[in-house]
Amino acid sequence: MLDEPLIYLRSVLDRLKKRVDRALFFGKVLRQTQVAQPIRPGRFMQFVKGARQTRLGPHLAIMFHAAAHPDKEALVEYGASPRQGEGRAASGGPRVRRLTWGQLDATINRLAHALVARGVKGGSRVALMLPNGNEYLIAQQALARLGATAVQIGYRSKPGEIAYILSNAEPIATIVHADFVAAMREARTISGQESRSPGSGQESRSPGKHRGPMIVVGGDGAIGSGLPSSSDRGSQTDLVDWDRAIAAESPDVPPKITEGDGGGVIVYTSGTTGKPKGANRSWRRTGFESVADMMLQVGMKADDRHLVVCPLYHSAAPAFVAIMMSLGATVVLMNHFDPEAALDVIQKERVTCSLMVPTMLIRMSNLPDETIKKYDTSSLRWMMSAAAQLTTEAARRWMQKFGPNLWNFYGATETGLVTLAGPHDHVNRPGTIGKALRGNQIRLLDDAGAEVPQGQIGELYTRNSTLISGYHNNDEATSSAQKHGFFSVGDMGRADQDGYFFLESRKHDMVISGGVNIYPREIEDHIHTHPAVLEAAVIGVPDPEWGETLRAFIVIRNGQHVTEAEVIDFCRSGLADYKRPRKVTFLVELPRNPTGKVLKRELRERAG
Length: 608
Hints:
alpha/beta, GMP Synthetase, Chain A, domain 3, 13-stranded mixed β-sheet
């Protein structure tokens, strides 16, 4: 009988200890990031009043910083929109637009009012199809302020791909750049969301219930394909001009909306295999332990100036923008990545940090030394690699050119941040994705669902407070990705005795040759150490005798030369014979999706 009270007391004490530890941890994060800065009482009350009028969400950080330091620079945008072909300053340099925290917060409020006036409510879904730019971040934050959900659509998507997302997510409105109105119209027709034009000779469809307005960013007649001139827009009632809509609204916080689930974001997965799935993330259910741990380890601070070069319609780039905005840091946006242009912006804006995919890091570190030395990059404190495999050779070359500032995290749209590797890890433990971030539990499971022994390869499952709520309108995919509350995106990995994790391959990439499991990443890592090789990808191809054999696709460094026989011999000398590719194909570049992942399905198609 006495055991029960003791067990209960231990349980209470354990919970109390965890709460105290959590409080101390977040206190340490606040001190180190220097986000907790003095604020005038009047401005603090201004923030409190505004916060009481809205709901919880990432937009509250913008509201706070607008009150604390309204004149501090929040956003800096470099470059014109894709295909716009203009936007250069009189000096011949790129167009630059700047917004302070006060201006940003007011514009978010104006857009929120404009959205409410057009039927957007708490829980509504609104599609965004925009290039990197201030408008993208304003739209994301305005939707969060209303408790609505942003449906992110890549601006490189074709009408058929857009139509699939529209049909799956059913947004009630769209915010689209002028250049993509024609593609959006065609997608709406395909998805049944818009009538076919009269006299087209095609069967007419009635508009779908989710047709909604299109708020159009940019364009004035000649710029946007399929967009009427300003004087004609009134005749097309679904088209709304962004600038006019915002100018007509109040900069004050919109009335509080209580309906809905608090809003969030739906990000469609890269789709390297099959149709993309809409990863649905709810702001109300998303925790911050792993984010805070990363902030602490990396040394993120409120005075950071963060360069954005990855597309905002994915997940990693906007996640890091949200982190920077929560700190009150300055976000510097580039519309289009160019390695030398990035160096120029780093120098001009005294950029302290950035997130890049490995391909970008490779392109920058592969610039001639005389080009790199033209620019002052001493302001860089940290560089984060994500979204695709970072090879040991790529990490080594970056740090050789730009210093020991390279970090690498493992995570996914579905899982958020899972592990983190620092600059020293790339040297001491080549190929590691690091240790688990705070708040993560990781299991490596075999096909039967049992945990594999240390050092052996298993499918990586994780559980944390940043898991998505599921795939939108796809319960089967949600269920098949989970085991006992742990989530997997199909990556295969192993762990060493010190708790460091290593990725081997994706589950569907594993090759079985002569009954032996082969993980292409091991072969790719070895090929990357060849001095003539810039990039490599390895796949399995059907073989009548072995079931599958390996084929390598290689991009050679500028000015270098290597033959197929030399690559095969190089693999034979460093790997077991069954791991050597039987054929090598040389390419100008590897096919990749916008976030840098190699599209191995396209390589398989080329292989026949």
